[in-house]
Amino acid sequence: MRRNPRELEKTHTVLTRRAMLLGGVQLAFVGALGLRMRQLQLEEADQFRLLAEENRINVRLIPPARGEIFDREGRVIAHNTPSYRIVIVPEDAGDVDKVITRLGQLIELDPEQLNRAMTEMDRSPPFLPVTVAEQVSWKDVSTVAVNAPALPGVSPEVGLTRKYPRGSDFAHAVGYVGPVSDYDLSKIENPDQLLRIPRFQIGKVGLEAKHEDLLRGKAGTKRVEVNAAGRVMRELDRREGEAGADLQLTLDAELQGYVQARLGEESASAVVIDTENGDVLAIASSPSYDPNKFVRGISVNDYNDLLNNKYRPLASKSVQGIYPPGSTFKMITAMAALEEGLIGPDETVYCPGHLDVSGRRFHCWKRAGHGWVDLQNSLKQSCDVYYYDLALKVGQDKISAMAKRFGLGVRHDLPMSAVASGLAPDRAWKRRVHGQDWLVGDTVNASIGQGFMLASPLQLAVMTARLATGRSVEPRLVKSVNGVEQPSGAGRDMGLNENNLRKMRRAMYAVSNDRRGTAYGSRVIEDAVRIAGKTGTSQVRNITAEERARGVIRNEDLPWERRDHALFVNYAPADNPRIAVSVIVEHGGGGSSAAAPIARDITLQALYGGPPPLEVYPPKDRPRIEAQQERLRNVLPLADTEGSGRA
Amino acid sequence: MSYLEYTVKSVPSGPRKILYLNWPLVLLLIAVACVGFLMLYSVAGGSFTPWAEPQMKRFAMGLVLMLVVAMVPIWFWRNMAVVAYCVSIALLLAVEFFGVVGMGAQRWIDLGFMRLQPSELMKITLVMLLAAYYDWLPAKRNSRPFWVLIPVVVILFPTFLVLRQPDLGTSILLLSAGGGLMFLAGVHWAYFAAVIASVIGLITAVFQSRGTEWQLLQDYQYRRIDTFLDPASDPLGAGYHITQSKIALGSGGWTGRGFMQGTQSRLNFLPEKHTDFIFTTLAEEFGFIGAFSLLGLYTLIIVFCVVTALATKDRFSSLLTLGIALNFFLFFAVNMSMVMGLAPVVGVPLPMVSFGGSAMLVLMVAFGLVQSAHIHRPR
Predict the structure, then answer these.
(1) Cα–chain center distance at A646
(2) How many Cβ atoms from other residues are within 10 Å of residue B154's Cβ?
(3) Do A41 and B287 touch (CB under 8 A)?
(4) Which of A56-70, A268-282, A615-629 has the lowest mean pLDDT?
(5) N or C: which terminus of chain A carries fewer CB neighbours within 10 A?
(6) Do A15 and B319 touch (CB under 8 A)?
(7) What are A230-266's pLDDT values in tens digits?
(8) B276 vs B298: CA distance, rounded Å
């Protein structure tokens, strides 16, 4: 097929024109691509470079070592010990179920922990290690290491775990740590990033919780390069964190151990304060529990046992428990009256065994009455009527104010959980809270530490220390933080009349050392360590007129919950006070029989810095005390283990 | 104008043909392929396996294939155009019907030594057939509706088959290359104006109808469009690829982060880093200079092809060469637009650089045709 040359020429021209046009469009597009490249790579380069770095670099936290806790002598109360755990990397393990079955034949695996591990494995990327066993013994670690070829992806890892070498002795004061929970996080505003680390341990109760900020320390960071799946490729740099502050407490671990053992399985509490500077030497609540169990994660059974125990081992009775102080409050009523000048030098009151106030009869504990009593005798024999009479003269508001000066109804800010403020009621309080007028009968009840009056063992110890010194002693639990001494709790002069204080001290001395004193049975015969104290027996029930008519039922015949609380407060040595002690035995019966002997033992133990010589006890007590010392030595297995650490 | 109308005495014959190759074009192709090897070596973390080495072998094979095709006279290829087209259609149909059963994926046919994507082959054979068609068709019939309808059907049939695979990228390329060839052949511009106007009208209608009762697309399709227009709105979902790709490009800066230092590709933030998104790795590691150089190489290849095409008096050769150049242009233009966030992610590889057998071999065959046209041009 021949075509004419003109037509050929024409088609070629069209082709060339169109090719040029299309080529021009293509060139324009290439130009657009070039411009886009310029825009992305040159103009916006900085921004994209930043984004690339953000992609690539991940900041990881390095958990700091938690601060350690020591007693006043530098003995370890809480420290971090290396603990071994077994982790498995699912990616390396291949058949995870088979490997775990094999592992289970070698070492014991906790099914609960295993379940947790399995769910964790499903959620996290396969290259992240998952813990299958915690707190593994060294023996199991070596078993796993030896069998490593048969256990792909399984490896032991070492970490730090909180340990409380003195077991239950400091459970209430120091508390324990545990893995941070969602509930914990919800309570904290703007939480530290550290808390987001899975199973990071924070203080849960007690000092561990209250001084969490000091103990935790600051997280270090390391910058790591990660790939798109989040796997760490390499570490770029790291900035070490700051270990938590070491705390030295005012507590004496040996005394604390003794007190805890002396209280035994009673539902009781005792506080020992250094009257000089307010240092809390021992603060015990019994029964106690082992905080180490909580660190690991306590089993449901163990926890339920603690919860259902009627002696409430979890409660920190020394600061949290508030009780009617009973007769131990009489010093306050008396001081209020003395400071008001309402008690003449030889003034006496007649006690017929009861006092009728606005048509109601208030009984003295001694039905027969004490006859004519003066201040000293009234305290010594704990005559109630004398104080009814005083209180009516002074008025409740003055008594309440005096109680607050002595630290009752005032919250002492110890770094422990649930520190209660107790109650020193006045007229305004009752109007505000109960919407009722204060009755004269309320005053009568409050005068002997009953009725609305409530105080914790700590507050009673502080009260006693203030009586002994005349200074507003404040309790102190933390002696130093990272070696920096904390402010002393010595306090200032309370501005009380020294003569009045002297009268009170003489009366208290009489309680413990006079033949007719209520605590004479728990006296000390060595002059250098004589005790001045006061018994208290606080009712937890109202004695009805009906009961009274049938005759007073003896405490021992009542069910435990309804028996009286036994209290005793004292300071010693009587002539040169060094320590103040308060003891409460819940539903223990009489203060002189249940609380005073314990207080005496604790006082002597504290003053002698160990078991006191038997000679300080009255001769007839010695065989019993000797047996008791022998017994307690055996209950104190921890006192000599775990050598002293640094201070 | 056809070869039958020329004396072919002056056309070189025998082994001497090799001297008449368009050598600059060959060197450009080798240069681009070397960029590919380098990048494949880099994205594998400094290793020839699994990508660089097979790619080199395939390129060697492709070079041989190109020479073989170049040695064969161009008129043979013109005569084979219809056959080649029919074979391609048959293969596409085979994929359509047997693809699932045979290979588990619908795009491939397993030839034993390699997997062939018939859609790749179709790009070349379509151009061949259209070039032959317009070579045969007297110019005055070019714009008559009937003679326009025939190439339209020829284009739309394979496009439809590819779209069903589904492979949106390739079908757009087929449509554009076919349309481009019709334009080059001299079909009246009014046809193109009409098509462009109606496409614009359709797009407007699609967007205008959104949210009304008569909306033309499903909601999820609109959302996909949204993601394309603003990838930042869904940075971890559908927009993830394009966002990461832009980060890689942008972080390259002027000179890049250095060979094998690209964090985006090395740490797997880039998707498909050895195939569709390989350009981002180049841009990240060699920066604007590297990326722009590759763009320059590509442009030079186009320019050489256009020059070759316009130099020959043979209409088939011209159309074929221009068509292949257009195809090549569409390849890299769509790919680069895609990774730079100018076009939706449709899955078009970067020619001669991306890892992949079919595309590279088919391109080498295509350049073989260009060479053949060059060697056997009427003198």
Answers:
(1) 22
(2) 18
(3) yes
(4) A56-70
(5) N
(6) yes
(7) 677 777 778 888 889 999 999 999 999 999 999 988 8
(8) 16
Count interface pairs A-B at CB distance under 8 A: 140
**Which tokens is A142 given?**
């070596």
Tokens of B1: 């104008």
Cβ of B185 and A15 within 8 Å? Answer: yes
| Residue A174, SS3 per DSSP | coil
pLDDT of residue B311: 87
Cβ proximity of A630 and A622 under 8 Å: no
Q: Please indicate, yes or no, whether residues A232 and A266 belong to a single structural domain of this protein.
A: no
* Interface-testing mutation among B244, B257, B263, with chain A (most A C-beta atoms within 10 A): B263
The verdict on a CB contact (< 8 Å) between A55 and B247 is: yes
Q: CB A1 to CB B2 under 8 A?
A: yes
A539 domain residue, yes or no: yes
The distance between the two most distant Cα atoms of chain B, rounded to a whole number of Å, is: 69
Tell the burial category of B9 from Cβ atoms under 10 Å away from its Cβ (0-12, 13-18, 19+).
exposed
DSSP class of residue A493 equals: B
Q: Are residues A305 and A210 in the same domain?
A: no
CA distance A319 to A477: 12
**Cβ–Cβ below 8 Å for B267 and A225:** yes
Residue ranges of domains in chain B: 3-186+241-375
Which of A249, A276, A304 corresponds to the end of one domain?
A249
- Compare CB distances from B253 to A10, A22, A41 and report the shortest one's residue: A41
pLDDT for A637: 52
CA distance to partner chain A, nearest, from residue B322 (Å): 8
| Residue ranges making up the domain that contains A101 | 59-249
Q: How far is A89 from chain B (nearest CA, A)?
A: 21
Are A140 and A204 members of one domain?
yes
Nearest partner of B68 among B5, B132, B18, judged by Cα:
B18
Q: DSSP secondary structure string, A208-275?
A: HHHTHHHHH-B-EEEEEEE-TT--EEEEEEEE--BPPPPEEES--HHHHHHHHHHHTTSSEEEEEEET
Which of A76-90, A563-577, A612-626, B187-201 is predicted with the least confidence, judged by mean pLDDT?
A76-90
Tokens of B292: 């722009």
Lowest mean pLDDT among A305-309, A488-492, B107-111, B238-242: B107-111
pLDDT digits (tens, 9 = 90+) for B42-100: 888 888 888 889 999 999 999 999 999 999 999 899 999 999 999 999 988 888 776 54
A positions 49-108 inside 8 Å of B (CB): 49, 51-53, 55-56
A378 is catalytic: no
What pLDDT is attached to residue A647? 33
Q: Which pair of tokens denotes residue A426?
A: 């006045």
Interface check for B326 against chain A (CB to CB < 8 A): the answer is yes
pLDDT at A3: 59
Q: Give A-chain residues touching B139 at CB under 8 angstroms.
A: 7, 10-11, 14
With a cut of 80, say whether residue B14 has pLDDT above it.
no
Residue A503 is predicted with a pLDDT of 93
Among B313, B49, B353, B257, CA closest to A13:
B313
At A578, is the secondary structure helix, strand, or coil? coil
- Is A121 domain-assigned? yes
- pLDDT confidence band for A645 (50 / 70 / 90): very low
Residues 202-241 of A with CB under 8 A from B: 225-229, 233
pTM: 0.67
Which of B270-279, B296-305, B310-319 comes out lowest in average pLDDT? B270-279
Q: What is the CA radius of gyration of chain A?
A: 36
Residue A424 lies in a domain: yes
Query: pLDDT class for A546, splitting at 50, 70, 90?
Result: low
* pLDDT given at position B103: 41
| ipTM (interface predicted TM) | 0.89
In terms of domains, do A396 and A509 share one? yes
Whether B297 and B272 have beta carbons less than 8 Å apart is answered as: no
Q: A168, A285, A327, A593: which is the annotated catalytic residue?
A: A327
